[in-house]
Amino acid sequence: MGAGLKTDIEIAQEAVLDNIVDVAGRIGIEPDDLELYGKYKAKISDEYIERIGKNSDGKLILVTAINPTPAGEGKTTTSVGLGQAFGALGKKAVIALREPSLGPCFGIKGGAAGGGYAQVVPMEDLNLHFTGDFHAITSANNLLAALLDNHIQQGNELGIDPRQVVWKRCLDMNDRVLRNVVVGLGAKTDGVVREDHFVITVASEIMAILCLASDMADLKERLGRIIVAYNYQGNPVTASDLNAVGAMAALLKDAMKPNLIQTLEHTPALVHGGPFANIAHGCNSIRATKAAMKMADYVITEAGFGADLGAEKFFDIKCRMAGLKPDAVVLVATVRALKYNGGVAKADLSDENLTALQAGIVNLEKHIENLHKYGVPIVVTLNSFVTDTEAEIEYVRKFCRERDCEFAVSEVWEKGGAGGIELANKVLETLEKKKSHFKVLYEDNISLKEKIEKIASEIYGARGVAYAPAAEKQLEKLEELGFGNMPVCMAKTQYSLSDDPVLLGRPIDFMMNVREVYVSAGAGFVVVLTGAVMTMPGLPGKPAAYGIDVNEDGVITGLF
Asked: Which residues does the annotation mark as catalytic?
């Protein structure tokens, strides 16, 4: 098992990359349509995206997963490997992924470039600064914050109530001490003293706006609608009121363009935008997905974390807003993760345990049931580990077939595209045999509470929703302000179907606890914070940053 001897970064660094001009040329993109960032990264021009608008759409395949566990699932690895497998079969395929955040890169999770022999490259560039999109988003977010505080300092013509400022600063780093801060301390010229907060960049509304905006005009319109604060009369104050839109848009001009890189096997990959799925909407940009569908016959995209978060938001927010109709869903699981859900300790996951598999497979079962509600054909894939036994694989195969799901084993981590041929053929067969009848879970015209309760009961399996008094008031206010017809973006732990991260498997008879609700008026959805989920994560006791280094030749080690 060659991949087992090498780390992901070693595999990526040993790869021979094609010049990005050649990668683009193979799917019909001319050199003039690229804005190069060195030899292996490029942005795609607005002119090209406009020109391909008349092309017919390729098939859209969503890759999602069961709830993540320390055992690992390999959702991005599967997305990349499936794209490589399509390439190996001679199909014209493009992958459309999110950009990784520096927060998890230096925290617990590591990067997000795939793994083994199914990675997008250059891996180090992608996981670190890439093409500067996140820096642009951070800058635009913090420019708005600076203009807001400056307006209050310079006479506060808009009558902003400093106790009702809702716009938060952001940083693309896990930094818990910035969650709750006081700004404006010092002399009178240093600003008005008030409580402030930071979120991680991927939770910024600017990130959501960038990912949902169709073009520059739409971007500016959305930026203008951002609510930054409320005045003394309780009315919203927007970014447009602060005259911030033009400067913010200027900072985001290049970040709006999708980035093109390649896989280890030179499959084109559009990597653009990166909202977290547990605290934001969890999908890459609409521009990148739509452009990919005009470039290729098959587009493989993914949504963050488990299907209860990423897929639900992909369907109910992204597809609703963009008019997308996915053709198939690939649901990723591992035998190890299912056994972990069945109560097996991480150290014992290598042992065959059909009893634990039977107990833990209820997590997969719930995700299958949920995805069926959206009317999209499902292929379940087991991301293969060397410790999986034939009896365990056969048990999962039979379980899926009994639930009207196609099934395939994926060995892309170990074998790259060749290890994804079975999965690719199963997806192609499903696209041929089964028509998608995609529909969203809820209609726009029901109340915010009804939307929250529908997701909580139908997707999470909760018996009800408990609202904190503050959340009750916020919901009432948002309905009054006319935001009741927006979809909801549920901020919830990724580790459980419930809002309690320790409840594994398929929890029943639990309440969802809503503690705060606010509107992202520019993005066009209402954010609902449940349980103890944080919009600014912290670092663990031993951050991944401890293991990252660079040598005298500029070679980076320790990224994963």
From this structure: 75, 77, 98, 109, 277, 305, 385, 413
